[in-house]
## 1
Amino acid sequence: MLPSIQAPQSAPTAAALTEKGVSGRVVALLAIASFISYVDRGNLSTAGPLIRDQFVLSNAQLGVLLSAFFWTYSPAQLPAGWLSERLDARRVLAVGLAIWGTATALTGLASGFLMLLLLRMTLGLGESVMYPASFKILATETLEGERGRANGLMAAGLLCGPAFGTLAGGLLMVWVGWRTVFVAFGCVSLLWLWPWLTAPRAAPPQRLRTHAADAPSVVTIIRRRELWGSCLGQFCQSYTLYLILSWLPVYLVKERGLSVPAMAQLGAGVYALSAVASVITGWVSDRCLTAGAGSNRVRKTALLAGFAGLAVCTGACALAGPLGSLLAMAGCGACLGIITPSFWAATQTLAGPGAAGRWMGIQNFFGNFAGITAPIVTGVVVDRTGTFSAGFLTAAGWAVIGIVAYGLIVRTIEPIDWQASSRRRAASGRSPTEGDVAD
């Protein structure tokens, strides 16, 4: 059954459990929006070899272009989280997609490095609302035992985006050129707005928003150690994800000697494997929760296993031979598919419907600094060493730190009772922003 509305800040009553939840159409459209966002942000990576040659760019310059998306995407997470809590999250998402679809189309008309840089920054600004708004919708309208499948589908959309962009985009760029592909993909992205704006609502708008007075403040949220463990964990996952998203085409073509069509097929296979793993992970986690397993055990098992596998596979990408490194790259894709829906669901569980938008805005702000560092660090390393080995070893180190983040810093993945924390502070005479770490 599709997710149901959960009353904010309290356990769902029997009546609430029988109400109609978020529609299948909304879940599907969120997955499609996630797909579109990663097609559009990943197109520059697929076109990287062609753009680098046309504009005579160094690897470091290409790394700057690849990271420029995150110069606006990461800091804009904070206002995006605030907007998702205070305004209609569905409308916020629609405006963001309109901005990023337009920026994608205009990229096909870029005349040089500076224009590409500005359009990538505009793209990041538009996409900044994607996950705070989506997490607000899912945290408000889904139950814990249904959250795995919803997040698994969104993660599959995210990971199918690069698969499609790499395969279809790579082949189309050989046929019609990269400029035409950007214009076409941007215009197609905008078509999503019509079904989204006409999608039925599961309940009156006031049921989908938590009033500001009932929600924890930003200061209260940032005093939770669980938030900082989640931020660090997302950074560790995102470092490998954005290394692959940014440099996989160049790595396969320049270091492994594949043709652009072969690169497109192999790269798409890595992302497709990741998407399948995310759907399976979401389905299995919901089955385990339905069978009586606790949220903490289910989420942590997937997260720790995924990070351990990611550390091994990224290390193998650096040290193994040609065949072994390609197999390890497939393993990286599978491990990312295990981690992504798990940390998304963990975030929604911890924050709850009253704080999901703000929490995800803060978490995405810090976590996506990996999108700034991974492309630039890798580009500089490749320029200096002529190989990607050090870049993959760096990613392996971050994967090990991810185990620490979710194994030790986030002690328990269970809903935080924000009202109980406020009552304890009031009883002890403390201000609303004091003592949250200990709660």
Note: Residues 71 and 121 are 7 Å apart (CA to CA).
## 2
Amino acid sequence: MASIPPQRRGARYVIDIDELDRIPASEREALRRVASRHAFRATEYYLDLIDWNDPDDPIRRIIIPRPDELSDWGRMDASNEAAVTVLPGVQHKYPHTALLLCNRVCGGHCRYCFRKRIFIQDADEIAFDVTEGINYIASHPEITNVLLTGGDPLMLPTARLVDIWERLSRIPHVGIIRVGTRMPVFQPWRILDDDELLAAISRISTPQRRLYFITHFDHPRELTGPATAAVDALLRAGAVCANQNPLVRGVNDDPVVLAELFRRLSFAGCAPYYVFQMRPTTGNKPYAVPIVRAFHIFEAAKRHVSGLAKRARFTMSHATGKVEVLIVDRDFIYLRYHRARDPLLDGRVLLFHRDDSAFWLDDLTPVAGRGYPAIPAEQPDLLEAGPE
């Protein structure tokens, strides 16, 4: 029998901590306890990117459990997604955008995942049959954007994924179908070896209705040859690509590293889209960076790159909306609702006292009359002094 090429061996999924024989057995025992609470999963390909001689290797921090994940910091549903879940597997937080949670499996489990609850609880948030969700979208003409997420939609069989795309593409008011995926990072051959998938993208992504692939690269070393080839295959098939990622302690909380990520993403044709403040999800404390420090890292990184590489916005996905961090000065933090759950708050500027220890919007103290959600919609003049 012919030997399997190395890249195909890398497609195998690893879910047992004891298979990580490059970690001493004495350490694996502690990691098993973490993985019993916050699930572990990786591909051989991704594990091979780790420098196992470096205990602080950023790829290792992304994928290998740490004992300090067992702290009680945070909540499982840090952004209260339950409050905007209108049907099983359907979230409708913003008027024009709906989320279909169509899969509870990922190629790998990032240690800081904000939706890790779906890997350790019953999958009542996921709809394996999306018919009801598609009917909901069809009956709401204000929805122009649909995001497929979960889990990773590219873990679905191609035929099932394409069926979802085709059903959504028949809804006249849906102009964008987005796929949130980390498969170019964890297993690029899922894309490179699937002619059926690429043909479907070419058929469905048209000048009238586009398929967007929202990738999730965290560190420049994830942009390997196969990974960038997978992005290129998506682009050549007619998809549009953009990247979003959290700011992760020990991974990309360095302006030089983050600038290199932005630069290489722009070279690959995958525009930086959002950089997120780490959500205060249970187990995420080892990976969180305070807001003020994260903002300064983000701004410093943008100063190192050209315009096309500095398009990302630094935001928090708060329960009340997507809040962009605009300015941090000596005394205050200025924020703006980039998107708000209440449409009347869209674009509103918020003002909080600077707090260098704060990790989340709820940790900040608002300046009287300028916090959320106390700014009355009928008094937009209150916001005029805010930076635009």
Note: The chain is about 30% helix and 20% strand.
